[in-house]
Design brief:
Helices cover 0% and strands 45% of the residues. The chain contains no helices and 24 strands. The N and C termini lie far apart (44 Å).
Length: 294
């Protein structure tokens, strides 16, 4: 199912996916958080939450100590877009900024149920994406920084580069075994494919799209059904359906992806469609168009 979004995000917290009613099987909420300079928003949900900064500069005031990988000093060397301060009352102040979804790795604040956070915009505008799900595990609040993001140029050197893309994994079962979520981003080159070869998994997944330039579009498949996707659309992936993606020529396609582990069946890796795995094998013979006239 594709949820189409017309125009810009609503100011404040705009719930895009709610895990109730006919979407209860998604097991997670997903929202945009759009703030103007000086405005703020608070979260004290009884959910595990991940806040991914998409654009602008924000300040997080967290009610607990936040763990992070980096320097013991307040300023992290060679990453001056981040500032972290431990507060006397036991909380944490974090200032973070991001200017490009395409060129910069993400910054993500990951909180357990019950931990409060106040988010304030320090730039003219700030946009974040918020993923939330139930989780009774009490883990330490964590800040994931751009330099520790697992970044791959997936499918590089194969398929005549027609599905080479950037895959950024923020956290999964390897580095966050306590989480019920897996979170990351994909940068899909113009005119090329991602989530390819086609694959599937039983765990529900959300894709949320941005295009550059914004009037761009792409196509996705869910099983045997094809859908057009545009800027700020959201794709709901369920029922172990294959979900390959392609961006229209001229338009870079970025999408956030978040997977919800199933109880007793966490997401580890996808299962590829056996009809198409051959294309990714070394030495695969793939037809090439002849450039000279016959």
């Amino acid at each position: 199912m594709v949820l189409h979004h017309s125009g810009d995000y609503a100011e404040g917290y705009e719930l895009l996916v709610l895990r109730s009613g006919d979407r209860a099987h998604m097991l997670m909420d997903f929202a945009s958080l759009s703030l103007q300079k000086g405005t703020s928003w608070r979260s004290n949900a009884n959910d595990e939450r991940a806040f991914l900064l998409a654009e602008g500069m924000v300040e997080f005031l967290v009610s607990a100590k936040v763990e992070w990988v980096g320097s013991s000093e307040d300023w992290i060397p060679d990453l001056k877009s981040i500032y972290i301060e431990s507060l006397a009352e036991g909380g944490t102040r974090i200032r973070a900024s991001r200017t490009s979804l395409l060129e910069e790795n993400p910054i993500v604040l990951h909180l357990p149920a019950g931990t409060e956070v106040k988010i304030q915009a320090l730039s003219k505008r700030a946009v974040l994406y918020v993923s939330a799900t139930s989780n009774d595990t009490r883990f330490a609040p964590r800040l994931y920084l751009p330099f520790e993001c697992q970044t791959e140029f997936r499918n590089e050197g194969t398929l005549q580069e027609t599905s080479t893309r950037i895959v950024r994994t923020v956290f999964n079962k390897t580095n966050a075994p306590w989480s019920n979520l897996v979170l990351g981003e994909v940068v899909n080159q113009p005119g090329r494919w991602s989530s390819y070869p086609p694959h599937h998994h039983p765990q529900p997944e959300i894709y949320h799209y941005r295009f550059y330039p914004e009037q761009g579009f792409g196509m996705t498949a869910l099983g045997t059904e094809a859908y057009l996707v545009r800027n700020r659309d959201t794709l709901l992936i369920t029922d172990s359906k294959d979900h390959p993606q392609v961006a229209a020529p001229g338009y870079a396609m970025w999408y956030l992806w978040v997977i919800r582990h199933l109880d007793g069946n966490p997401y580890i890796s996808p299962e590829f469609n056996p009809d198409h795995v051959w294309v990714d094998k070394p030495g695969a013979q793939i037809w090439e168009m002849r450039r000279e006239r016959q």
